[in-house]
Amino acid sequence: MSTQPSEDIDRPDKPSAPATSDGFVRGVSEAIGGPLGSHAVRPEARRGRFWTATRIILALTCLTLAFSWVQKSPCQSGDWQENVQYTRFCYTDVLALYYAEHLNEGAVPYRDWAVEYPVVTGYFMGALGLPIHAYGEDHPEINQGTWFYNANALVLSALAVLTAAVILALRRRRPWDAAIFAISPIIFFTATVNWDFLAIGLAAGGLYLWARKHPAWAGVLLGLGGAAKLWPLFVLGPLLVLALRSKAVRAWAVAMATAAVAWAAVNFPVFYWYHESWLRFFRLNSERPIDWGTLWYVGRYLDGKWNSGAAGDQGPFQWLSDHVPTLNLVSYALFGLACAAIGLLAWLAPRRPRVAQLAFLVVAAFLITSKVWSQQYVLWLLPLIVLARPRWGAILAWTVAEFGYFTAFYAELMGAGGKPVIPEGTFVLASGLRLITVIVLCGLVVREIWKPELDPVRRTYADDPDGGVLNGPDAPWIERLRRTFRVDHSPAPLDPPPPAEQVVAKV
């Protein structure tokens, strides 16, 4: 085994073939003859063809989003009689909040109504909703809610396609990794449940710019993403940890500064002129009780098996449910400890972890420890796990668990409305399986950080394709830290895959 990837691996004209690099795809490919043989006409040899891997992936993304729009069509009128939004799995906050946030009355977000979302999401809602309301005033025959949903679905779908394009751009030698994203049932069911693709698109653009060594602009997009949904700001944590390891702190400081400026610039108008409205998002998150399907929800249910829940007879999760400020502190503390452990792992690992690996671990840790885990938050993890660990098998298992939770959650909502469908224990089981599969994904990513020879991306790239300015030698203090923790391992060797010429042709 050699300590460096072979020259063959690092050639830009040798893209990775999923049927040879992924065990799950290899097994499935047996149904159509197995991996491509050495005597076959390889795809890269057919110059001038229209259906390249990139175009196929983007077309599949568009097709999945089109099917998602059709799947949501029973709810687009807003006439949600007899729980149609749950029985047809077509519920969307986008349509519901058009009325709940008074956009249908022409209310300007934050000025006339304290929108419950960060400001970029509020701006986005107003930018689409207010013109539709104004047009609807002159054309009462249109359904404003339907128009608002469709306008949002169009823009959010474009952002989803942009995210797929970023994955393709970051994995030029592994284009079929993006197929995991393009055809995911997660996108099919949740792409337009809320405005999460606004933050995802901005965060994806930030990661791309960081990979292309533009830390200032990367910070701008991450800051704007954090002003749409908080989680894109978490990416700055892994970047700091890796920057400390690779002597690139100046680049990180630039990204951090521009992220702070971008975040402050879009927040300042609302903060200054409509301060109480600006505070609503933060107050709501501070005051919210334990939400559906979280670790704390599962724990409270299990507590109820042994404790009545009355004063003096409560388990720890039941007690925390009644003391939300303490629950907040415990949740933040657990997330902080998880981030500290991820940082230590990043410094002790034999090779510098990839940006996507640490970003996935941090965002997953936030969801696992949070008291709120809305169904559409699964979208946060999807592009990150594709970049962090593009293995079909584990991701499909997680997707099945997420779909199980999705169906159980809607059944639970129907039960909360007075029409019980499933026992509470079934919903808790679905919640637990979702939690377990995310933890398993985290464990698999950690294993590949500790044993980088198992990392499929490192078999194709000499270094982190997302690393940008981070790619380079370690800072001297890393070796001293390893000695302090008695971690003595040299950079792990990588076994290159066999050259294409050695792959046995399938007859």
Explain the overall architecture.
By secondary structure, this protein is an all-alpha fold. The protein has one domain. Helix content is about 60%, strand content about 0%. It is built from 22 helices and no strands. It has helices at about 20, 25-30, 55-70, 85, 95-100, 120-140, 145-170, 180, 185-190, 195-210, 215-225, 235-245, 250-275, 275-285, 295-305, 315-320, 325-350, 355-370, 380-390, 390-415, 425-450, 475-485. Helix 10 (about 195-210) runs antiparallel to helix 11 (about 215-225). The longest helix is centred in the N-terminal third of the chain and has 27 residues, at about 145-170. The chain starts with 17 loop residues before the first helix and ends in a 23-residue tail after the last helix. About 45% of the residues are buried. The model is unreliable at about 1-15, about 30-35 and about 495-505 (pLDDT under 50).
